[in-house]
Structure formats: C-alpha cells, structure tokens
Design a protein that fits this description.
The protein contains 7 helices and 14 strands. Strand 10 (152-155), helix 4 (165-178) and strand 11 form a beta-alpha-beta unit. Mean pLDDT is 91; it is low at 33-39. With 254 residues, it is of the alpha+beta class. 43% of the residues are buried.
C-alpha cells in the first residue's frame, strides 16, 4: 500500500464514522461522567471509537490502537499506532452545538506520521503527512503570517482539570488585551486546525491528552506553524501536557 492509499483509506474510515455523529439520536446518548469536572462520555463516543478501531485495524493490522475511551492505553514506542479521539468536543456533541470532530493521528516509531481531523458538520477534512504539507478537503492550507495584534487567539479551558482554571483565564485575558479577540470552541482538534488554516494565529490549553493533539499538531506544523508544550518543549505522545500552537510569528510572551 502506498502512502497516498494509506491516507485515503484512513480518510474514508473517518468519513464513514462521521455519519454516526450526524445521525445520532440524542435521546439515546447514554451520557456517563468520567473523572474530572464536566468530563462526559456518551454511547456515541464508544460507538464511533469501536467502529474506528475496526476500520483502521483492517487498513493497518500491525498497528496498535490508542483510543480516548479505553481504560488501558498501549505503548506507541515502536511500529505503527493510531491515537484516536472518537468525538473531540463531547460536551458540544451532547448540546448539539455542532463543534465536534473525529481526530486520528498515525504514529510511526514514536513520531507523528499522519493526521486526519474531520468536522462532519461542515464536511471539512484536514489532513497532513509528515513532510508533505497540510490540506483541507484536498486543497493546501497555510498558517497566517499576521502578528498577534492582528490575530485571533483560541483557547481551551482544560475543563476536566479545575486547578488550571484561574491561570487559563488570566492567560486568555492577557491575550485579549494584545490581540484582536479571543475564541473558545470546545474542541482542541478543531482549534489546532483553525490555526493551520490561517483562521486564527494562536491556540493554547494548559492540559490536553495525546488524542487531543496527535493529529492536529502535525497538521499545524505541516501548514508552517509551530506546536510545543506550553513551556516550549516537544509534545509527548504517552502523557498529557499543556499545548501552545502558533503561526510562528506570534509567540507565547508577545
């Protein structure tokens, strides 16, 4: 299988699972709470993840599968691994807010290799392959080249980790005073893709997990942006961290 065929097969699998979200009956969502504030999982999170696991491992049987809704996560150190968030923006999904995405990152020997993020509500598929650029529905995308004062800042509130709330809003207020405005969508995967597409100049969240950024971070980088931990380090794939994504013109301390 060529690299192009592999990517197309992943896109096909993700699109197919997007129909589950679009056709969801919210009266049968089966909402459960997980550890942390406002940390929900629905029957549809589990359904999408199960279908993704089946389809993705049919494409690449030798890969391990790391999904958000698993209790134990496999190592991504060697070979291929899919890191998946079946519905990034679950609270949005529960509220029918139409700002949720399926995020699939393919890891190769502990390095980000491919990323696919799908917003089924807008039928937008963001893709990237390491070293090959970033795309939206097949058309190339690039980050903006605007400085912070001409930019939009997107942020996440690390809702499950209430200890970060004050620092998050202090940081957001600081950016609000320096940028054109701030935004909060509720889906970090889509936030990263909006930076990649040049719709915003900077994104931050003080605590995310690898399935939140495994795909989107690669898409930003392939679009010409920079993604690091909140302290400027390399993004880990085996544990959570704070995330800062910029268009490479804006910086954390601007």
């Amino acid at each position: 299988m060529t690299e192009e065929q592999l990517l197309e097969n992943i896109i096909h699998a993700v699109r197919a699972c997007g129909t589950i979200i679009l056709n969801a009956d919210r009266t049968k969502s089966g909402i459960d709470e997980k550890a942390g504030h406002a940390n929900f999982v629905t029957a549809y999170d589990k359904k999408v993840q199960s279908e993704l696991q089946k389809r993705l491992l049919e494409i690449l049987p030798e890969a391990v599968f790391v999904g958000e809704e698993e209790d134990v996560h496999a190592s991504v150190k060697d070979g291929y691994a899919f890191i998946v968030d079946p519905i990034d923006g679950t609270t949005n999904f529960i509220k029918d807010y139409h700002a949720s995405a399926i995020s699939v990152g393919l890891i190769k020997d502990a390095k980000r290799y491919m990323g696919v993020v799908y917003n089924p509500y807008l039928d937008e598929v963001y893709t990237a392959v390491k070293g090959k650029g970033a795309f939206l529905n097949g058309s190339p995308i690039q980050v903006s080249r605007q400085p912070l004062e001409n930019g939009i800042v997107i942020f996440g509130t690390a809702t499950y980790y209430e200890e970060y709330a004050k620092a998050t809003f202090d940081m957001a207020y600081d950016y609000y005073c320096k940028a054109l405005d701030v935004r909060r969508s509720g889906s970090s995967a889509l936030d990263l893709c909006n930076v990649a597409a040049g719709r915003a100049e900077l994104f931050f969240e003080l605590r995310l997990c690898p399935w939140d950024y495994a795909a989107g971070s690669l898409i930003v980088e392939e679009a010409g942006g920079v993604v690091t931990t909140i302290d400027g380090g390399e993004l880990p794939l085996n544990e959570g961290c704070g995330v800062l994504a910029t268009n490479a013109v804006c910086r954390k301390n601007d």
